[in-house]
Structures are given as C-alpha cells and as structure tokens.
Amino acid sequence: MRLQQPSWPRFLPTWWVVNFATLGGVGRVLPAPGTWGSLLGVGYSATLVLGLNLGTIGVLALSTVASYLAVAICGEAEIRLGRSDPGEIILDEFVAMPLCFLGWSELTVGVSNGVVLLAGFTLFRFFDIVKPLGISRLQRWPAGWGVVVDDLAAALVTCGVLHSAHALWLAL
Questions:
Q1: Distance CA 158, CA 14 (A)
Q2: Boundaries of domain holding 50
Q3: CA angle 153, 156, 158 (to 5 degrees)
Q4: What is the C-alpha separation between 17 and 100, in angstroms, rounded?
C-alpha cells in the first residue's frame, strides 16, 4: 500500500486550508510555533479527558479522525505554501497531544492534573524536537503523512514515558 495525499482538500480555498493548518494563524504570528501548537493541544487534551471525560477509547476514536483530517489539511497546506513541513503548520502538534494522556485516570493516581499536563507537554516537546527512536524517519513519509505521523509517534512515546515514570513514582 502506498500512502498518498488525500485529494479532497484541494477543493478548499487556500485561506481556509492555511488558517486551519496554522490554527487560525497562530503558527504564523508567534515565535516557536510548534510549542504554541502543543500548548493549545494541551488545552484540547484537557477538554477531552477532564471536561468531556471521553476515556481512552473515546480519545483514540477522536484522535484517529482528527489525525486523518490533519494529514489531509497539513499536506494540502504544504502544497499551497510550497514548502515541506513548514514550521507554521501546527495542526499536527495540536491533534497529537491527546495521545500523550491515554490512560489519564491511571496517570493521575497520586499526582495532580497540572503536573501530568506539564510533564506531558514537556516530554512531547522534547520528543517532537529531538525525534529519537526512529521518529525522525517517520517525517520522511510522503505528503501530510510525514507531517503528522512523527508527532503521533512522539505523543505515544511521551505516553509510555509518563506511565513508566508514574509507575516508578508509585513504587518509591
């Protein structure tokens, strides 16, 4: 199976595609756009796990749909901007963040919500920037897939580290 850029976004107006991919222009006006996209993603994550109490299955289902939309929109934004994975595209960080907090109820046993959110944000930024463990290779996937999949992998590694650190914390 060969991954391809979804074709449906090409019918959308450029201003809409770029504004969606840059989260309303946030990625274009603020310094360190990936950090801002991640921070907005923390708010989105908190809404899903604290406000809506979606649970792991709900977050996975919503993340699957959001990730596909992000692949399509981010890939189309790359085409419209004429650059590969430009920094102002931050929808990828935004949609990946909820995966950092899978198993939320287990992560917050004996630890405050704020500490878990801060730790998840910090670890995600680290893994998104450094791209260890083969994450950097995922960025080479074609079109919007490469823009989004490396962030999804960084989020899942973050989730694993959060759960491991939490287990160690409880064992002490």
A1: 33
A2: 8-171
A3: 110
A4: 26
Structure tokens at 142: 């074609």
Q: What is the pLDDT of residue 3?
A: 87
Q: Which residues of 72-85 are buried (b: 16+ CB within 10 A; e: fewer)?
A: bbbbbbbbbbeeeb
Count up the domains in the chain and report the number.
1
Check if the beta carbon of residue 150 is closer than 8 Å to that of residue 131: yes
Residue-wise pLDDT for 28-87, tens only, equals 998 999 999 999 999 999 999 998 999 999 999 999 999 999 999 999 999 999 999 999
Contact 93, 128 (CB under 8 A): yes
For residue 165, being part of any structural domain is answered with yes
User: Which amino acid, one-letter code, is at 22?
Assistant: T
Q: Are 36 and 89 in contact (CB under 8 A)?
A: no
CA nearest to 99, candidates 73, 72, 127? 127
CB neighbours (10 Å) of residue 153? 22
